[in-house]
Design brief:
five-stranded parallel sheet; six-stranded antiparallel β-barrel; 31% strand; alpha/beta; Elongation Factor Tu (Ef-tu), domain 3; single chain; 7 helices; 350 residues; 3 domains; Rossmann fold; globular; 17 strands; SH3 type barrels
């Protein structure tokens, strides 16, 4: 009997091609569509399910739909709101991967008799010396290892990333050649499983507005904010400040006084940080890195690689010092460490 693999199918082209490639390789493939957010006026779950079902039909595999909305709200969305309330800017995709896509989904797949799961993420897994390594995706423009850094060795042992060695253009070509109906579907963006929507308006449905002063670093009042939770470090648009001169940027959120600190200029010194500390460190590599030089770290998904030195990696805390100051380092986001193409893990920025 061939090995059974359950593929998380979102309705997009990447997960559809992942299922197609596994079917062609001779595996017994079952598609699984996860609904993790209850329908509202912005949710695209219905049309995504239709797209996933059409792709599964074209591939010739079964598709099951499962509702993880309760788990998502409890494990991901509640933490998402707590972080915003505390003045931080969380990355829900990181937590969603660790708690839903590779925990709730994996547990469900194992109950279906699967030996492993697969997704359409642009990343790779390599077994070496009794451990598993999470590698960057071959397409640098699509690499998603940043979002996967909180996976465990046990999870990596059960995961396949069939499109991780491909470029996005190749994935679309394979889909088109195979006649998959979603081969030209636009990539999804926005919050994990919640999708694209006016973010400030969405957040205001769950968090109260707590207005306060907008001040310069010297304490001069220049405006009023609607609530610190609705702003992020480095933000330019939506502050409500204009006038002549360089644009204003958010530099700090003072929770104790409810003040939003702004500065003028994209590269103002208060927007730059050379040293970063993080907590809740999680090491997908299986163990924390030794102190010393590292090839790179990222403080945001789209950030370019930045050479750094690990100054501490003890327990759940990690600290790094960058060769050059990094702009708009944001509490609540993740700093993720790399040794060349290998993702080591990371933590939540303080």
């Amino acid at each position: 009997m061939s090995e059974r693999i359950v593929v998380g199918m979102s309705g997009g082209v990447d997960s559809s091609v992942a299922a197609l490639l596994l079917k062609r390789a001779g595996y017994e493939v079952v598609g699984l569509f996860m609904k993790n957010w209850e329908d509202d006026e912005h949710c695209t779950a219905r049309e995504d399910l239709v797209d996933a079902a059409a792709a599964a039909d074209a591939i010739g595999i079964e598709l099951e739909a499962v509702n993880f909305a309760a788990e998502y709200r409890e494990r991901v969305f509640a933490e998402f709101l707590r972080e915003y309330s505390a003045g931080r800017t969380p990355n829900p995709d990181v937590l969603c991967n660790a708690e839903i896509k590779f925990r709730a989904f994996l547990d469900h797949a194992l109950r279906l008799g699967a030996t492993r799961i697969a997704t359409g993420h642009y990343a790779r897994v390599r077994a070496r010396d009794g451990r598993y390594e999470l590698l960057r995706g071959a397409d640098p423009a699509k690499d998603q290892s940043y979002f996967l850094h909180r996976l465990t060795q046990a999870q990596l042992a059960r995961v396949m990333f069939p499109v991780g060695h491909l470029r996005k253009s190749e994935v679309r070509r394979i889909a088109a050649d195979a006649g998959l109906p979603n081969h030209a579907k636009k990539d999804s963006t926005g919050i994990c499983f919640i999708g694209e929507r006016p973010f400030r308006e969405f957040l205001a449905r769950y968090l109260p507005r707590t207005p306060g002063p907008i001040v310069t670093p010297e304490g001069r009042r220049v405006g009023e904010h609607i609530g610190l939770a609705f702003y992020t470090i480095g933000q330019r648009r939506g502050i409500g400040l204009g006038g002549p001169g360089e644009p204003w940027y958010v530099a700090e959120k003072r929770m104790d006084t409810n003040e939003l600190v702004v500065v003028r200029g994209h590269d103002h010194p208060l927007l730059l940080r050379r040293a970063v500390r993080a907590t809740e460190a999680s090491w997908v590599s299986g163990s924390p890195p030794a102190r010393g030089r590292l090839h790179a770290a990222k403080t945001r998904y789209r950030q370019a690689d930045a050479a750094c030195t690990v100054t501490a990696a003890e327990g759940t805390t990690v600290a790094v010092e960058f060769d050059t100051p990094q702009r708009a380092v944001t509490p609540g986001q993740s700093v993720v460490l790399y040794d060349a193409e290998v993702c080591l893990g990371g933590g939540i920025i303080l």
